[in-house]
Write a structure and sequence with these properties.
Distance between the termini: 25 Å
Radius of gyration: 22 Å
Shape: globular
Structural class: mainly alpha
Number of strands: 0
Largest sheet: none
Protein name: Helix-turn-helix transcriptional regulator
InterPro entries: Cro/C1-type_HTH, Lambda_DNA-bd_dom_sf
GO molecular function, one term: DNA binding
Oligomer: single chain
Helix content: over 70%
Number of domains: 4
Length: 404
Amino acid sequence: MEAGRIGRRIAYWRERRGFTQADFGRYMGQTKRWVQELEGGRRQGDPRLSVLIRASEILRVPLEQLLIDGPPDPPPATTPPVEIVGVIDSIYQRLPESAPLPTMEQMRNRLVYCCAAYQACHFTALGRDLPTLIKQAQRAVDLAGPEAMEAHALHSRVLQLTASLLHKYGASTAITAGIVADRALAAAKAAGSPVAIGAASRQVARSLAHQQQPAAAAAFAVDAARSLGPDLTSGGPEGLSTLGMLYLVAATATSTAQRSLNVVERASGYIAQAAEAADQQGVDLNADWTMFGPTNVLLHRVDVAARFEDGWSALEAADEIDAVAFDGMARERKAQHLITMARASLLTRRKNAAVESLLEAARIAPEEVIGRQTTMELVKDVLRAVPMPSEKLRELGRQCGLPA
């Protein structure tokens, strides 16, 4: 093996995956200096086969891509990135007995940071911090005495965030996300909080939808909304936001079923029920990290229409969104909407608009676009639809692992 050429290939894919040399070194268990020497072909004993296998796992490319010359042409991103694998591993681990346990307040503060990272689409940073918090929250439950309900509530919220993160990576993490969502619901019931139970039920419903069970997903969300409705309606912004989001999840799940007049009507009905909760709330709020309110309901109306492949209805609904209100949404929510608008624009043959929306989504939230299977397929479709793609669009395609 020629170390120099292999080092250049590793550097190429490291940059495409958005890793710094320090990031890549940390995942490899090495220093930045080691990575510099590896990529420069200056390590005489490397690259050993074990090193290349580990590098291929971290960079999410086949081993042969690091061994042969030629234009890199990786397969679709069917496995989660390395930091997400670390999150999955932590679900089945326990904190060492010798490790100190932070106070509840310290863990709540860390959870706030992690939720903010999620809404800012900093999934790599979240993937580094979440494993420790998962194990700490589990330990807090194991040791809790008088704070048992508080500990269960914290544990449920951490697991809900974990499920949300895993849902980002589609089929490759769907089963694990479902297990985590079930654990979150059990913890919420132990805490006895209607808001926690409703929020965890939302994650269970999303898991069912990701496992191709749209009818079961919608039914689960609606049953939770109806059974918890009185408590949530009287529970202030957190309760109303939880209630509204349950109906929005039901609408989204329904929109993945085979389209028919009855299915479209059911989805529209769920959105209308969410709109009632939003009207009662009155304004857009980020209560319990939901970003729920009238604007989020409109964003879901656009998304549902696009999922039904009704591009014109999606664009018409999008015209109702207030620009100032949209600007106040979390980055994750804005990026999701821009991706939806790219789909709707492509459905209506507005190719330039599709490119603009996709590039804007990648600009404000690159981790929401790059490395995600569903978005990668959209990037591929846009590239095919545009006769002469711009360099920015081609570069986005390369970052998603598509042929240059």
